Every structure is written in structure tokens, then in C-alpha cells.
Amino acid sequence: MEKGQWAYDLHIHSALSPCADNEMTPNNIINMAQLKGLDIIAVTDHNSAQNLPAVFKVGKGKEILIIPGIEVTTKEEVHLLCYFPSLDLVLDFDKKIKSHLPPIPNKKSIFGDQIILNEKDEITGEVEYLLINALDLSIDEIYKEVEKREGVIVPAHVDRKSFSMISNLGFIPPHLLINTLEISKNCNKNDINLPKEYQFIQSSDAHYLGDILERKFFIGLKKLNIENVLHYLRNYYC
Amino acid sequence: MKVKDLFEMSEFNLVTPGVEGEQEITGGYSGDLLSWVMSHAQKGNLWITVQTHGNIIAIASLLELSCIIVPENITIEEDTIEKAMNENIPILQSNLNSFEIANLLYERGII
């Protein structure tokens, strides 16, 4: 692929996340993303990457770049988007954090289903423990585990009044290498006041198929691949 | 003591009209980390929290909490109020802060 501006949506939930619609299946997500003309997507479920093998299988051979990702809830109840260079690495991270999810059973009637799907959109399992709970790992601990696996952290929806690094901590920890922040799709980056210059990304946080973005936000890359996307998120030259 | 006994208190303002407040109060819990509250609050507790998004109703429902009290006149989202009314969970708003509310409830022998 040549140098250009690539349309992205880097924050989409599948049916694994209890709050997401059960129609957010691997095939539906990829098909909708293609219909919307997106070049890059990430399926970032709460505290789990268990639908990513199927998403990657469905996406193989299709003209869409999928970034392995996960939306973690830290001990401080801050949502962090964690992106990795490969499916193997995000699954390794998934394995690591599993034991740090409190063993509180999901109550489907209140929170929704947490379903694991295969590449044919068939249900192959369910996650027993509530995925929207906070892990007993702090921001710093998550940062170490992501860095170990060559990943990059993007604090999610920092403009929101809850589950955001700014609402919960009041600041972005300066000792962590964080250069990109996510803000909600309807937010204006000029409304965010921070002492340092940050790069912003905006995604849908889609819980329903219709929420997946149109070609609205773009990343400029010389070549379209996972490594370049991660490099873009990790660095900001202002 | 029932939640509806708090409705008359001048320090509280009922934000969910029509919710009867027949729940028995078993105690109080103050906390803003949802995951912590989920593991520690008890059935029938009054919950004092600065969180006002829709997830607080899911937690209150899950744990069968008797009532939610929001301090410092924090604005509660319409969506949250609607969910609370559907679940029959009373939400009270107060101009006092969490510490003062807990103190008040002890002083008046409610907890």
C-alpha cells in the first residue's frame, strides 16, 4: 500500500464485551467496517482478547488492517487501550491479566452476555467472570506488561467524566511513555487542557454495528502495516 | 428504617419521583470505585457515591442496594435517573459531601 491517509476506527467492542450487542460478531464487524470504507480497525474488548483469533481469521485476505488490541480497566478504574504488534502478543497479555480479573460472576440480565465466537460467528463459549470489572493491576503495572510485549498504551476517552485517566487521576502520569490520548468521537481536542502536547485519536467505542465509524478520522502513514500504526501511536513529533 | 423516611429530610432531594422507597436500610456504604463497591457493599445498604453514570444502577440492582445518595449537588445524568426509576431504586441528591452525609446519617440514628 502506498503512502497516504488511512481511515481508522481503533475502538470497537465485540459481543464478548457484556455491554456490546450480540450482533457484534467477527463477520459483522469486518463486513460493516468494509462497508464503511475503513482501512484500519481494532476490536478492543474489555479485559479480554478472546474474540480476536476469530476476527483475525475472518479478516485474513481482506483489504482491512486489524490491530490487535484490548481495553483494560485498571485498579484505578481507568480504561486503557492497549495495542500490540501481533495476535500472539495480545493473547499472551490476555493470559497474563486473566488471573487479575476478580472472580465476580457476570449477571447476564444486568450486564449482558460475554460470548466467545469462532470465524463462522458460532458461539464456542462464554466468559464467566464480569469483564467490565477492574483488574487488580495498577496503571503502572499494566504499562510494564504492555511494554514487555512491545505494545503501546493509549488512555481511552480521556474527555469522559468516568473511567478516564483525567477524570480518575486528574493527570497523565508523566513518567510513563504516553504520547497519544483517545477522545470521544464528538469531542473537540481544543477543549482538552493539558500541560503537555499530546496527539489525539478518535474512535467510535462502538457497541452496536451502526456505531462503527465512517471514514471520518485518518492516520498518515507511509506504508499500511501494524508496526507503523503502533509507531504512530507511540510517538508524537510536535 | 425505610428509605422513604429520608425523603422528608431537608438535606436530601429526591431525584427519582414516584419511587416509593419501601426498601429497608441495612447500613451504609461510601465508595466511588465500582469494582470495590461490587465486592464489599451489602444488600440493603445506602450507597453514597460521586459516580452518576448509568452503571451505578447496574451495581445497585446487582447488590440490591436500598438507595443511592449523590453528594455535593452533582448533576445526575437523565439516563441514570430513567434507569433508576425503571429499577425502582431511589436516588437522593444532597449539597453535603460524602463525609458529611455519613456523619449526618449516624447522628440521626439512621445507620
Rg of chain A, alpha carbons: 16 Å
In sequence order, what are the helices and strands of chain A, one letter per element? EHEHEEEHHEEHEHEEEH
Instruction: Give the CA-CA distance, first to last residue of chain B.
Output: 9 Å
Count of alpha and pi helical runs of chain A: 7
Query: What is the element string of chain B, with H for helices and E for strands?
Result: HEEHEHEHEH
Strand content of chain B: 15-25%
- Rg of chain B, rounded, reads 12 Å
Q: Work out the oligomeric state of the chains in this entry.
A: heterodimer
Uncertain segments of chain A:
none
Query: What is the 3D shape of chain B?
Result: globular
Estimated share of beta-strand residues of chain A? 15-25%
Please tally the β strands of chain A and state the result: 11
Biggest β-sheet: strands ordered side by side in the sheet of chain A = 3-2-1-11
Q: Return the average pLDDT of chain A rounded to an integer.
A: 96
**Low-pLDDT ranges of chain B:** none
The greatest inter-chain interface is formed by: A-B, 14 and 12 residues
Number of helices of chain B: 5
Largest sheet of chain A: 4 strands, mixed
* Helical fraction of chain B: 25-40%
Shape of chain A: globular
